[in-house]
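Per your request, structure below.
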């Protein structure tokens, strides 16, 4: 009772959604209960309400959903990463430098790569290319020839020729050997063109990391050379007098490594490889520690898969300290440290914003106050379960209710129960479940089976978005992203809900949410009001989500709007990219929109001839069809 009387405050909202924990100082709540973005601008710190940005976008003519990019956040993450390495190196007396590269695959969108290279130029932050297409992008987008381009992935002669020739104009393009077959091709092309290659090798570490992507590292990883293959490469290079070309050692343990201990172990193992390669006579000079720097999606600061038990400064300090200790012991010069942090660099800068279209609430069905007399046995039993329920027999009541419901369904199938009787039984069952759920709050140890009982009783909020298009990892690997309303947070949210998207797929939903000590099966949301849109944001979606998305139900790309926050409450819309129209998505699956219109026109003409519609009706219908073709694939108000 006490709790119910306590007034809801914005601080309660911050706790409920964990925004201070996952927001990394970028996202917070205003006193008025709105989500704000905080950035550093040239004239000092500034904050802007997301709601104002949404208004700005809508005033410019774009409807929801929108993928919002905040350029300042991308810039700031690049700065934080570089500054942190710099500081850690200074603190540990590290004599080499740090030079990061951004792996293009994490977000290939032109605008993102453009911003990374433009802003990254001051740090000589380079690019990692995993394919020919990505190399083509990197060569053109990189702004400073002092930035590095690291080529991983399978490389054919064409790829190698292109990379080799650009070294003539001063580019630093490293070819990282991932499989033994690549070396002869690189050497042959280099011989033919008369250009010395910069060679790196990717190793398979025996260290492994926990988390979703653990298979990228470790002995069973499909990429990288085993120790004996490394020795072969060294011998081959020695034979051909090319050991001076071997300058880089690389590993990639996998993405989103939640435990700092795994990171340290991998760096230690790699440092040993590195010093032995130096002792073998390889030129070396660069140590590329790959990606893996994690994002704390649930804000728990733990080694849970969606979190991490370290912050950026701890990461860089640990990496540098381990390197110093191993390399100094062996008297090996400190190399330039490269990391390929993708996720941590871009995750923060994108937010998926959408409006809620509709809500299905759980409403209790009708149950008569007194038990009707002429009920079949199974229904009487259901009433009995409901009457007998106490805190002590919840599991038993649950089992009985499930049993009788099955029995009732069977009787209905065999024609022994009427539709009304079945409906009464269903209402009774839901009522029992709800009562159990309420009583569970008073139980110390909740039986596992009953833990998720609440689920069937949650509201369903229908959001104007597609999980498959905009949040593919939610569907594919049960990724958790922070989700919350972006306004009305001074008001207590009273509905427990899950989110459904507008695909009619049963997987098109978000029903797992981050919580500080756990995951939650529902989220607290506000009641919809008549006169105001209700906006939700899915945060930290800048990494991996954009190009993995697919055209499920032919819902296409959302609009993308990039803003730069310029001061308190002010922002520039830097770019607007219109999302797919219906005609766009139809052509992706090989329809010809023009031919579709033509076809439809014929059908209409036939209908006019048959006297089923008038010429005026024909015109109107055709107009609707053509307007539909041009429309946004999402729900338009
Ligand atoms: C995917 C990938 C990365 C990016 O990893 P993050 O965890 O996103 O930083 C880096 N290097 C390689 C080789 C990759 O395949």
């Amino acid at each position: 009772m006490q709790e119910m009387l306590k007034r809801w405050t914005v601080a309660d909202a911050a706790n409920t959604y964990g925004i201070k924990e996952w927001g990394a100082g970028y996202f917070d709540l205003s006193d008025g209960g709105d989500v704000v973005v905080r950035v550093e601008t040239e004239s000092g710190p500034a904050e802007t309400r997301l709601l104002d940005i949404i208004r700005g976008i809508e005033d410019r003519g774009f409807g929801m959903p929108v993928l919002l990019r905040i350029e300042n956040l991308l810039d700031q993450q690049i700065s934080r990463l570089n500054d942190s390495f710099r500081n850690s190196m200074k603190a540990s007396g590290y004599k080499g430098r740090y030079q990061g590269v951004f792996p293009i695959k994490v977000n290939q969108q032109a605008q993102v790569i453009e911003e990374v290279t433009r802003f990254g130029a001051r740090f000589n932050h380079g690019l990692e290319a995993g394919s020919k297409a990505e190399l083509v992008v990197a060569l053109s987008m990189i702004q400073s020839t002092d930035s590095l381009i690291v080529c991983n992935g399978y490389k054919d002669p064409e790829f190698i020729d292109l990379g080799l020739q650009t070294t003539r104009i001063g580019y630093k393009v490293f070819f990282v050997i991932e499989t033994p077959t690549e070396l002869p091709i690189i050497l042959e092309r280099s011989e033919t063109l008369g250009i010395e290659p910069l060679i790196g090798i990717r190793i398979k570490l025996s260290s492994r990391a926990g988390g979703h992507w653990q298979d990228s590292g470790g002995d069973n990883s499909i990429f990288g050379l085993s120790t004996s293959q490394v020795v072969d490469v060294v011998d081959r290079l020695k034979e051909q007098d090319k050991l001076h070309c071997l300058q880089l050692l690389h590993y990639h343990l996998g993405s989103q490594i939640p435990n700092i201990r795994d990171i340290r172990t991998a760096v230690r193992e790699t440092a040993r490889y590195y010093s032995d390669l130096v002792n073998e006579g390889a030129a070396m000079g660069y140590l590329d520690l790959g990606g893996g720097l994690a994002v704390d999606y649930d804000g728990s600061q733990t080694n849970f898969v969606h979190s991490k038990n370290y912050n950026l400064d701890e990461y860089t300090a640990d990496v540098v300290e381990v390197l110093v200790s191993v390399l100094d012991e062996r008297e090996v010069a400190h190399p330039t440290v490269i990391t390929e942090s993708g996720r941590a660099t871009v995750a923060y800068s994108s937010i998926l914003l959408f409006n809620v279209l509709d809500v299905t609430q759980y409403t209790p069905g009708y149950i008569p106050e007194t038990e009707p007399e002429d009920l079949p046995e199974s229904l009487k039993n259901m009433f009995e379960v409901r009457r007998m329920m106490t805190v002590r027999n919840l599991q038993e009541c649950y089992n009985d209710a499930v049993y009788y419901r099955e029995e009732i369904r069977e009787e209905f199938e065999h024609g022994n129960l009427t539709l009304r009787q079945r409906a009464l039984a269903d209402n009774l069952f839901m009522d029992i479940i709800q009562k159990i759920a309420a009583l569970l709050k008073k139980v110390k140890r909740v039986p596992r089976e009953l833990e998720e009982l609440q689920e069937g009783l949650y509201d369903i909020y229908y959001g104007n978005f597609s999980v498959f298009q905009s949040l593919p990892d939610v569907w594919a690997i049960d990724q958790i992203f922070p989700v919350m309303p972006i306004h009305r947070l001074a008001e207590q949210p009273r509905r427990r809900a899950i989110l459904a998207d507008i695909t009619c797929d049963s997987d098109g939903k978000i029903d797992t949410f981050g919580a500080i000590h756990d995951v939650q099966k529902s989220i607290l949301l506000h009641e919809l009001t008549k006169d105001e849109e209700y906006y939700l944001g899915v945060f930290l979606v800048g990494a991996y989500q954009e190009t993995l998305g697919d055209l499920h139900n032919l819902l296409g790309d959302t609009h993308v709007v990039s803003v730069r926050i310029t001061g308190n409450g002010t922002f520039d819309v830097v770019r607007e990219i219109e999302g797919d129209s219906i005609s766009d998505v139809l052509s992706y699956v090989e329809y010809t929109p023009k031919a579709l219109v033509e076809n439809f026109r014929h059908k209409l003409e036939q209908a006019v001839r048959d006297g089923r519609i008038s010429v005026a009706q024909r015109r109107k219908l055709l107009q609707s069809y053509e307007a539909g073709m041009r429309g946004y694939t999402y729900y338009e108000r």
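The CA atoms of residues 44 and 567 lie 8 Å apart.

Regards,
D.
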